[in-house]
Amino acid sequence: MFNVALLGAGRIGQIHAGNIAAHPDCRLVRVMDVYAPAAQALAAKYGAQVSTLDQVLNDDNVDIVAICSATDTHADLIEAAARAGKAIFCEKPVDLSLERVERCLATVREADVPLMIGFNRRFDPSMAGLQQSLVNGEIGNTELVTISSRDPAAPSADYVKTSGGLFRDMTIHDLDMARWLLQEEPVSVFASASSLVDPEIKAAGDVDTAVITLTCASGKIAVITNSRRASYGYDQRIEVHGSKGMLAVANHPESSLIKSVAEGVVAQKPMHFFLQRYGDAYRLELGGLIEHLKNGTAIHPSGEDGLQALLLADAALESLRTGKAVQPGNRV
Amino acid sequence: MFNVALLGAGRIGQIHAGNIAAHPDCRLVRVMDVYAPAAQALAAKYGAQVSTLDQVLNDDNVDIVAICSATDTHADLIEAAARAGKAIFCEKPVDLSLERVERCLATVREADVPLMIGFNRRFDPSMAGLQQSLVNGEIGNTELVTISSRDPAAPSADYVKTSGGLFRDMTIHDLDMARWLLQEEPVSVFASASSLVDPEIKAAGDVDTAVITLTCASGKIAVITNSRRASYGYDQRIEVHGSKGMLAVANHPESSLIKSVAEGVVAQKPMHFFLQRYGDAYRLELGGLIEHLKNGTAIHPSGEDGLQALLLADAALESLRTGKAVQPGNRV
Amino acid sequence: MFNVALLGAGRIGQIHAGNIAAHPDCRLVRVMDVYAPAAQALAAKYGAQVSTLDQVLNDDNVDIVAICSATDTHADLIEAAARAGKAIFCEKPVDLSLERVERCLATVREADVPLMIGFNRRFDPSMAGLQQSLVNGEIGNTELVTISSRDPAAPSADYVKTSGGLFRDMTIHDLDMARWLLQEEPVSVFASASSLVDPEIKAAGDVDTAVITLTCASGKIAVITNSRRASYGYDQRIEVHGSKGMLAVANHPESSLIKSVAEGVVAQKPMHFFLQRYGDAYRLELGGLIEHLKNGTAIHPSGEDGLQALLLADAALESLRTGKAVQPGNRV
Amino acid sequence: MFNVALLGAGRIGQIHAGNIAAHPDCRLVRVMDVYAPAAQALAAKYGAQVSTLDQVLNDDNVDIVAICSATDTHADLIEAAARAGKAIFCEKPVDLSLERVERCLATVREADVPLMIGFNRRFDPSMAGLQQSLVNGEIGNTELVTISSRDPAAPSADYVKTSGGLFRDMTIHDLDMARWLLQEEPVSVFASASSLVDPEIKAAGDVDTAVITLTCASGKIAVITNSRRASYGYDQRIEVHGSKGMLAVANHPESSLIKSVAEGVVAQKPMHFFLQRYGDAYRLELGGLIEHLKNGTAIHPSGEDGLQALLLADAALESLRTGKAVQPGNRV
């Protein structure tokens, strides 16, 4: 049984709290949040203790620290937890600055603790099934990966300003997925992008509609299409084309109800957003870290995975500025 | 906050325990099971107390008794809980004997306590959505209901012997669904059935493949097809045809992964069985009782719903014996 | 190269004329119709001659007579063509009277000429593919056949009066399909039916909504659901459940265009009616007769198939009158 | 009634011959082919005359010349037919050389005759329906177009050598589709491509797997993915994302048969290749030219459309050479 301390009791922290409590191998013991009522409510529901960071770090019974706080606290908390010798789960991203990520990962390496980054889609049963089929060779050699990812509606311009922009905030999930499915690092990144959805996003200097093409040395190609808007719900689809066929993950409808009337055959829209669509993934992702702690299996996605995805996002930004294909940068 | 006592800590009791614990308005306080280790494990996981029936019934803090024990204990436990003034949730069926059901429901009426029967499918979001669309008039007047229900594999002949047979054990869910969707009581039942799946089921005097047709006074018809076997998984589909269109609930695949290869386009099978397919329904059904207790909304499915479904199952059995359409019996 | 004479240049005759002209092994040489302009137009388009029945029957160059005239002329024309030694294709039905069908088939047997009945669905590539998969044993032993067949809109009451009613006019296609898929003659027929669609159909003494259950001696069951109305288009679906799986034929949408908007994911309706849905079947069915003439393969559906389907339709009518399962009648 | 002369009686010429014969407003009168037996067979089947080019051009009764001969004869035949005052249908491409296309179109303009280019997909009912929905504003403003186009298997290296390569031979259909759906000329083209399918294609200097991104001045983006191989059949899909939703065209399966077994739910593969998938489009495309001749509606796709698509293909080639986004060239 592993004892977990949760740092951050907001929306995503509450999701993790429920999943920690329901997991047969772990239990939620401490909750920290700068907003005390949130920490209290969550602690009460699951029989955990409201705690300070020091209490978490100094408690030898805490095995795992799960970081679900604001993005700009991630790197500091990872380093603190690493120095305290805790296994760490951290929501993405480690940080928006490559340099800060590098430093943080160096600290984790030095402390020699496990670190898992919350690229939750790797644990979605459909996507994980696709990747497994790929590894099994069910469609031969991979040739082309296409990833469609559209949010149901644009975030506020305020959010956009601090998010790191489309590529570092939203595309980064797709970049991680592309790397995971290509099983090879891209050597070239080209991005086309426009501001079509929201003039305020444009005013904030960001784009909202994008196509990013990644090419590998072997000739494998991946293409990601993104939009900050999809009136029909959260659009999350993947195709992998190989020498012997295609593997695809389709959208998940809100229900299986279908209405056939004079106007057409009307199925339900895809689930609204990530909390619905990736509910299973959130439930399953912690399992990867638990597996590592129990059986020594490799952790993924690792801190290194987080760094590589950020390098690709930065290359996409540079491609957008220059109109050229860009080689993903070497680390700082 | 409602305090719930769970009677029966087996497979289905464990499902309900998790859902009770996760529900924002209730909490699991007592667990009873004739097999002590099962009760202890469940009580430990959710911070409840292992209890005897008397402890449950005499505890004024227990608001709801959830009965998940063996079928032949249901009627007795319902009556005991009713006399103790508890709100009651009971897994189907109340009993296999019409006479015993009648007596049990009389006791409940006398005690004037709420009783909800676990026809879980009414709470499946797809099926509930269908029924709501129907009530909204989205396809005009109902004309024909078709219900497909196939288990992935036949139960043991031993189970079959005590189950009440196909109609009272399995079809009864479909009969309840038919009543709910027809919104009118059938006046005629005709059944065709065969033993094709398992010679031992035949030897036990039961059938495993069936078509049951229900006709209402208004002319509405419902047809149910059942099988104890479906190699491709749990087959649970509904269609309702109305004057202005059709509403349908499709099967739910295990994942959305699709493989296109030289042999064809291969989608995932339907979810394996009821625990997977109706996971959401199990999670949601208690909500109906909670709603009643909080807001006074009507309870459904009620004990009366349980009785009516049994009357239809018995009529189907008689039709099978006689080769004629049978009018569902008056109550004993 | 086979020379074909077409009797009847109406809507369905025109379909056959085009298919005859396009077939690599036959050519349209004569056209007869009581309405001269129809015959002239068709003859002109395909370079055929307008002819009288005598001219058709006395022309030794005519190999095949294709009968697409009014139902009440079928039996007479079949007999005349049979006596003239022609191979015969006749649209269903041979006749609405069992006695007349029997006499007509006797004449054909005596003349020893090939006779094919236009149950076109057997030549639909999807349905023919299903039957072939069944024969190949791809789902093991057949257990249950379900056939859904709904017209987009009710015919006029005038049509209904002369059509022989729902069972002999519309269900007969489904009864033929059931026999073809069961690969065994039903020994019991039960019908439930209502008049819900059109009061004039009811006034004409017919039903418009029906469920027919067929049972075989081996225990195989087939169930047919029919309606004279389906606002979402022509509903033509089949499922066959076997010991190792299910084979199904889905509806064919008008196009593959799908619109995903805030209201849902809207696919196209099924093709409007039989001329669209079974366009391929009409094109392919003559091929069965040509194959027989070229290679001696068995003809199906034969006159006997037409008779057996009528026997089942009559049994369904009797079941409806009596409320009992009926054994299909022996021949008159 | 329009009289059509067919130049080229090969595979695609035979398709057009059948469609011309079946069209209510036209008739096939002359057939020319350098291979006499092909011309003779086709002429005999449809009652047309085998002819020389001069006979076609000098026959005042010939209204339309349909050019289905080898690619390197297209431009010469278009010019000859234009000078003879005929309406012209020509299979794509006009020519592989931009300069030759320019000269040819100048001749057509001078002769002031109608010229239609066989980008058949514009007449596919699903794709035409999508474009119409787009024009109707059903999904608001267009933001992103994605086109998936994969052949079932790679052509011979010999074919590749004379075809103009992937972009000018295969992608050109997708480039025309992109222009038609964007309703705006792209100002920037970026191509990534690899040789993964066939070493001989690589040896011939061509690619077989490609992603092409087109950007418009307004910010609309289109992305095309191509492969010379798809083991699961001809993959032809389109998505258009707009401010209010998505319109998509799915693949068309060979039949609607679906098999559900222990291994999964197996649907049919997409239709094998363009002759099957675009059978309806071939049948309908001539109608555009006939409409123009009867009612003066605009012709599309025009010679200009052919030229613009070629300009995009050439820009894609240059992008591939340079690794940069390329502005489509001005005309020579």
TrEMBL record, chains A, B, C, D:
Sorted alphabetically, the keyword list is: Oxidoreductase
Residues in GFO/IDH/MocA-like oxidoreductase domain copies = 130-247
Q: Output the superkingdom of the source species.
A: Bacteria
Pfam families tied to this protein? GFO_IDH_MocA, GFO_IDH_MocA_C3
- Residue span(s) of domain Gfo/Idh/MocA-like oxidoreductase N-terminal: 2-119
In alphabetical order, the GO MF annotations are:
nucleotide binding; oxidoreductase activity
Q: Which SUPFAM superfamilies match?
A: Glyceraldehyde-3-phosphate dehydrogenase-like, C-terminal domain, NAD(P)-binding Rossmann-fold domains
Family designation: Belongs to the Gfo/Idh/MocA family.
**The name this protein goes by in its record:** Inositol 2-dehydrogenase
Q: Gene name on record? A: iolG
